[in-house]
Specification:
This protein is α/β, with parallel strands linked by helices. Helix content is about 30%, strand content about 25%. It has helices at about 55-60, 85-90, 110-120, 130-140, 160-170, 190-205, 215-220, 240-245, 250-260, 310-319; strands at about 5-20, 25-40, 45, 70-75, 75-80, 95, 175-180, 210, 225-230, 235-240, 300, 310. Strands 6-7-8-3-9-10-12-11 form an 8-stranded mixed β-sheet, with helices on both faces. Strands 2-1-4-5 form a 4-stranded antiparallel β-sheet. A hairpin with a 6-residue loop joins strand 11 and strand 12 (about 310).
């Protein structure tokens, strides 16, 4: 019998009302009808340009931003329906590593104290000695030397702080960790170390990751499955091998080509205003656009290898 996913997201949508000028308020669809599942011990990568909705999805998963519509289920429990006491027990099962490690630590507290905080708050079932053992375990697991544990954040490098942030997320023994651009603020030489660390820790602690990043190489290296977002919608989803090996959607093709600096390959037009209600959101930028693209595009099986793509041309041309 197949193991049920640790996390299920069903038709997640988030809209914001934005005041453009006096008397003019617009509705922005930051995320629209997003659905996916994350299995235990696997990594789901979410990629897309700035403004694609990646971080909005992350905040909705963790309850930092209320959903406009849809469901988020952790181990089959709908998080929006849980009371405060039940939510606390589920909160420890889903943790987050933020983009800027320097901004996510209290500058007045030691690393040891900050990493211990989720243990003190979320693991009342553990004795103090058990909490201390767990604290030492996760700090050692991220290869952070004992000489750094009692230092303040300002005394650590960016890479060391990100290791501490990963340890803090793992401390309460979660089932899933959301990683929001975990390498974007780090030097190139340190990024590879952090990615290798994440892969090792996933095997060691059997934890699932949701990796949100515009760094396609990081996602290619770490992710098992990938969803590609554009202007609040998923435009392609499949395994990492499928998406990176043979990208199907024009937007995915352009993203990957840009990441490889392939200037003679598929290129989008300049980014501009797009009417979300007028068919394919990529249409104003896509050199392959036709009149049929002005109709609403659904996310459907491509027929090629089991992935789904929000582009009628990919589906038609594959049959």
């Amino acid at each position: 019998m197949a193991e049920s996913p640790i996390l299920e997201v069903r038709n997640l949508s988030k809209t914001y009302r934005v005041r453009r000028s006096i008397g003019l308020v617009e509705t922005v669809k930051a995320a629209q009808d997003i659905s996916f599942a994350v299995e235990r011990g696997r990594t789901l990568g979410i990629v897309g340009e700035s403004g694609s909705g990646k971080s909005t999805v992350a905040r909705c998963l963790l309850g930092l931003t209320p959903l406009t519509d849809g469901e988020v289920l952790l181990e089959g429990n709908q998080l929006g329906d849980l009371g405060v006491r039940k939510m606390r027990s589920h909160r420890r099962m889903m943790q987050m590593v933020f983009q800027m490690p320097q901004a996510s630590f209290d500058p007045t507290r030691t690393v040891r104290s900050s990493v211990a905080e989720p243990l003190r708050r979320l693991r009342a079932d553990m004795s103090r000695s058990q909490q201390d053992e767990r604290l030492a375990e996760v700090l050692t697991a991220v290869s952070l030397g004992e000489e750094l544990w009692d230092r303040k954040p300002r005394a650590l490098s960016g890479g060391q702080l990100q290791r501490a942030a990963v340890a803090r997320a793992l401390a309460p023994d979660p089932e899933l960790v959301v990683l929001d651009e975990p390498t974007s603020s780090l030097d190139l030489s340190v990024r590879g170390e952090i990615l290798a660390l994440l892969q090792r820790l996933q095997d060691e602690f059997h934890v699932a990751f949701v990796l949100i990043s515009h760094d396609l190489e990081a996602v290619r290296v770490c992710a098992d499955d990938v969803i590609v977002m554009y202007l609040g919608q998923v435009v392609e989803e499949g395994t990492a091998a499928q998406v990176f090996g043979s990208p199907a959607h024009p937007y995915t093709q352009a993203l990957i080509a840009a990441s490889k600096f392939e200037t003679d390959s598929f290129e989008l037009g300049p980014k501009g205003e797009t009417d979300p209600s007028a068919g394919c959101r990529l249409m104003p930028r896509c050199p392959l656009a036709e009149d049929a693209c002005s109709a609403e595009q659904d996310l459907v099986p491509s027929g090629k290898d089991g992935r789904t793509v929000r582009c009628w041309k990919v589906v038609v041309n594959d049959h």
